[in-house]
Design goal:
single chain; 252 residues; alpha+beta; Tumour Suppressor Smad4; 6-stranded antiparallel beta sheet; 5 helices; elongated
Length: 252
């Protein structure tokens, strides 16, 4: 089994990479059967985006803090762990953000696409789902669309629902909604095409982010799931992503 080791810049991740290099033969990501990512969730997301075109399975080992997308950090018996691992396929969200100059930017998100106000003024956003206007004006700090994998991240902090990994749903969750005050968001089919139109853009500028890719001063943001693009994540059988997401619903 040809392995490639990719490590975050932290001291812990770099030490783990050095140890693994001594234990196992390594190669480049292009030639590897499996890419081993050492770091935290943020570095995992960055690595998934960076190497997506290779369509190689990726196995993460947690050298960060939360490590929701990672396996435990254990350097021995790595080939056996990889052979026993379960594969989870993730499809990203595709964001098309058009800014005030009319420039359109395409970016992909594994966790969520989020819109946030840029100034002290609350944002005003009109929401369309599959070309149908669903909410004429949402006054808020922002709004996000989360995948099942991302539903336990920013979405959960914004009081959005946790979505089982195989539920074929997306979460549309407001961030500090002021009007309508009692609107708590919606669950959408993963085939939905969402358009977020920014109102009063001169007075109330808004930025849009697909994971860590940010576009400032957006006027219109389109979001849909890209079913043709896939990320292949490997997890230890006893602690796979489906179980982790399910377990999050019972934390107190």
């Amino acid at each position: 089994m040809n392995l490639a080791f990719i490590a975050a810049a932290t001291e812990e991740a770099q030490k783990a990479k050095e140890t693994l290099h001594h234990l196992y033969p390594s190669t480049t990501p292009e030639k590897a059967d499996v890419i081993i990512v050492l770091g935290g969730d943020g570095f995992m997301l960055k690595s998934l985006h960076q190497f997506q075109s290779l369509e190689k399975p990726v196995y993460g080992m947690n050298c960060g803090s939360v490590g929701f997308l990672m396996n435990g950090h254990q350097e021995v018996n790595l080939p056996d762990r990889l052979k026993a691992a379960n594969e989870t396929i993730l499809h990203p969200l595709k964001m098309i953000a058009t800014d005030a100059k009319g420039k359109s930017v395409v970016a992909y998100a594994i966790n969520e696409v989020s819109l946030l106000r840029q100034t002290a003024q609350a944002a005003k956003i009109r929401i369309y789902v599959d070309q149908v206007p669903r909410l004429d004006t949402l006054v808020c700090d922002g709004i996000l669309i989360a995948s099942p994998a991302g539903s336990t991240a920013y979405n959960l902090s914004a009081h959005g629902p946790i979505i089982p990994i195989n539920a074929n749903l997306l979460a549309l969750t407001p961030i500090s909604a002021f009007r309508p005050r009692r609107w708590r968001g919606a669950l959408l089919p993963d085939t939905a095409h969402v358009i977020l139109e920014i109102l009063e853009t001169d007075k109330r500028p808004v930025s849009a982010s697909a994971d860590d890719h940010e576009v400032r001063d957006v006027q219109r943001v389109e979001v849909c799931q890209d079913a043709k693009t896939r990320y292949r994540l490997l997890f230890d059988p006893q602690h796979n992503l489906e179980e982790r997401i399910l377990g999050e619903q019972f934390l107190v």
